[in-house]
């Protein structure tokens, strides 16, 4: 009975201890033990396991400055989602089932960490704030605030981050573990803000409190990298040697030793043999088999410093072939090859293809990828037009030959391709060569050199080509008996092998797949006038686009002149001719050449063109003030025309064009002058000027207007050839010229007032009230400094004008297309600062094409265009 009574007594004590409400010593002890070891501990362990997965899955790139924190990969988090869900359930139980335990706040903190890892940032932020406000544990509150600081930095909420830093700086009693995390998070804060000195200072302080030897090694390596890039080689060497302590991964040890040698001896050594032997020893060390691409790359950089560019290129090509553990390293190798081809040889085509290769190894999310993509945009256009010119020229030349001659050329081409394939196969049998370059984008492996047929690449390739010559490209069959197969004498059928069939031939390794047949080559040659005309049209466009791109973007004046001269010589009827003359005028003027010849050509061939007015009046104002003045003159001329004062209207128009050539009003003034011609001169003169205007104008609305003004001057036969006229254009014509409006019905205008034209020249507009312009007195100077820093080669110009009674505008121009204008807008909104210029003014700025600006100046409705801008450009 006594034993039974004791058991019952203990049982009731345990039952009463399970209550999460009663605050007794026994109850608290039970819940503290249970929540700590059954819930909190297990949840914390599972979170740590996922964090270890993040570190293990991340591939450190030691050729670049390591990030302070290892980035959290969403794919890794997704792989550990079940583990995090289990941790969430355990932490939640610690909160719900053990409310009186001292581990409730710690469990809330774990819930916040889980939300942070899963990118539920709002939930994480709220949880961290709750723990900070409610917890009585000072160390936990500090730990929570440091986690909150990192979250703010992730989100670039720098004001909240600054407030948190200020608060923590005034806190006392921060333990060593939290101090380490605080200084490391401060380094992250400075890293995101681009403050190099701040990063170094914070990491040096973090080293005073670090407890993990591997983490200490990593921080020492980061400091060494940063000191090396600041030119402080002695400090860099010391930290590289410190990074070797703590049993770091072999790859980090390798780079620490390599870079330590560089800053201590290699960079300063004049004994080139000693340096080259050092690299050769590294290359031959079996432990470095997965790092050979790095060793050869560093050798290439060393040879570049010696000025041996040819050897540098050879080594870079070799580095691209070598094995490596970091795919991004191949991307850096191709990027370096691109840089050399651009800087040393101005080989834009090779540069473009090397950058293409670099992007295949570098992730899209990598900042380097964004830099490469931006650099590649212009080169992509350049290569597209160059290759189109080469291709179309060849095809047009071939089209003039007889079928027999074309066939001979095709057969010779195939024969040369066969020889090339054999040569490539033979090269595989030779030891690796570092000569310049085997292939621009891909490199072959070394062959075995065996005499056994199926081990000999040359023999196999020669046999395959011989078989192809005799039998065609026959498909492989499991049932090879000829009695079971229908023999076909027609052209052999080529099937794509099933990728799941292990017996199928690797199509990519079959050299015959690279060989076209004669028929396919002949099919590419144009055979009709329409096809040749289309090729010529493409050539015309490419010569012009290439000339413009070379002048404005690549600043290659001589090549620009060559392409534009080819355009005007080979396509004398081109509608691009006036602008081509104008670009040639600018290019010859820049190089100190004979620009007057293009002034003469414009005056003789295109006397009414806006480009002619511009070259005739090179010193006349053509900026935004000129636009304002010409707008007022246009209104006066327009009123004079409708009042019947045609001579007065013409005088105003001619004076305006002479004083203010090539403004955004030029085409409107020219059309109004033609309308005056219709009143004062012959019908034939009127028609000729309209036809010339339609051919040369770039404003589609004004061209439609001119076309409909031309309709009454056309014969019935000519009208019969036209399609049904656009009612909107007819209505516009009727409004502009009442004399042509008889017997024309009213029609509604449904066309949008603004048009999308991404290739058109754009300007950037900053809209301000007169009072705001007065407050921003230093705006022009700040804009000049901004352009000098971020757009030193863009030749941007700035001017201001009054848009309407309530708004004045600053205009920055020119941008060759919409993309460049959008880039300027983005950088302006993010980085431009000027006293008196508010964020609202910056955000309400916009980019606009020249054509759309003409329309905007008519309506004066800025908000209407802003709506269009947000929907199309943003």
UniProtKB/TrEMBL annotation:
Residues 486-511, 730-754 are annotated as: Disordered. It comes from the Bacteria. Gene3D superfamilies: Tetratricopeptide repeat domain. Pfam families: TPR_6 (PF13174). Residues 499-511, 744-754 have a biased composition (Polar residues). SUPFAM superfamilies: TPR-like. This is Gliding motility-related protein TPR repeat-containing protein.
